[in-house]
Amino acid sequence: MNKLVLDTQKRRVNRQYTQNDHTLIQQGGYISPIPSLWEDILIGVVLQKPILLKGPSGSGKTKLAQSISAYFQQPMQSINCSVDLDAESMLGFKTIIAKEGNTHIEFVEGPVVQAMKNGHILYIDEINMAKPETLPILHSVLDHRRMLTNPFTGEVIHAHEDFTVIAAINEGYVGTSPMNEALKNRFVTFSIPYLTGDQLEKVMTALYPSSTPQMVETFLHIHEDLKKQVLNGLLSEEAASVRSLLDALALAEHMPLERAITYAIAEKLEDKIERDLVMELVVTWVK
Ligand SMILES: Nc1ncnc2c1ncn2[C@@H]1O[C@H](COP(=O)(O)OP(=O)(O)OP(=O)(O)O)[C@@H](O)[C@H]1O
């Protein structure tokens, strides 16, 4: 079996053949749906490639970024993109400081500048929610130059060797726009699917240890049914969201299962036909 060996000090990568790659997969709480996915992403990080995580809402992209941060013991700075994101919220802003009767102007460093200087992870969530004209400022940060001329101070910043960029997108969601080619081209891209089967069971029992095995099994069956209907095109992808399923499991510890699924899964769907279909599927699993 393939085991990744990372020299995190010297940021070197090696692949060896041993028996226990799962120790890596578990680190930081993210469970990899495909064994090689976690390792391949770590290789990308060590090779200083900007990483783009592409997957539906609740598929574990943020958890994965947090797990990479835990694995490399590197703090993470985050940017949540929206149409209001501007250069100041990424790079920082000037402010007036009054001290002992004197005033002076100081630059408060934003997440990009801090992460570049200190070798942190920069997590850019929902990168396709930002206005396309906002992000080109990061092009030189994201390619081989790994540098930035701060337009507010004129400072030229060369990224620390451990500086890592991880971005996430939910493609095709309301409010998103396709990423422009020049930006997309700077990333290596990984599809992050929803967890299923044994791995999903591990997450459920780890987060909700007081759930009975029968309850967990029922939720796994319901999730399988929901996924089938997503594949058949009868339900939208978020019906199979792991986040929603976990929310439903948390509620089901305190209320009947149908109500838990209604609040955590069905009510989030826009279409009444989809909501009814979810509840029809659930009824077949309620004794
Ligand atoms: N592969 C996984 N391993 C561990 N936990 C997971 C995994 N997939 C989903 N989860 C759990 O599901 C929940 C949602 O995960 P997370 O917030 O990382 O999703 P996301 O893809 O970032 O969603 P969004 O795009 O909506 O921000 C968390 O509680 C997380 O622990």
Protein described:
The chain has 287 residues and is of the alpha/beta class. The protein folds into two domains: 2-191, P-loop containing nucleotide triphosphate hydrolases (Rossmann fold, 3-Layer(aba) Sandwich); 197-283. The chain has twelve helices and eleven strands. It has helices at residues 22-26, 35-46, 61-72, 87-91, 111-118, 139-142, 181-184, 197-207, 213-231, 242-252, 257-264, 272-283; strands at 2-7, 12-17, 51-54, 76-80, 92-99, 102-109, 121-125, 147-149, 156-158, 164-169, 188-191. The strands form four sheets. It has a five-stranded parallel β-sheet with strand order 4-7-10-3-11. Strands 1-2 form a two-stranded antiparallel sheet. A two-stranded antiparallel sheet has the order 5-6. A hairpin with a 4-residue loop joins strand 1 and strand 2. Helix 10 (242-252) runs antiparallel to helix 11 (257-264). The longest helix has 19 residues, at 213-231. The protein is elongated, with a radius of gyration of 22 Å. Mean pLDDT is 87; it is low at 14-26. The structure holds adenosine-5'-triphosphate (ATP). It comes from Sporosarcina saromensis. Pfam families: AAA_5. Residues 47-198 form the AAA+ ATPase domain. Belongs to the CbbQ/NirQ/NorQ/GpvN family. InterPro entries: AAA+_ATPase, ATPase_dyneun-rel_AAA, CbbQ/NirQ/NorQ/GpvN, ClpA/B, P-loop_NTPase.
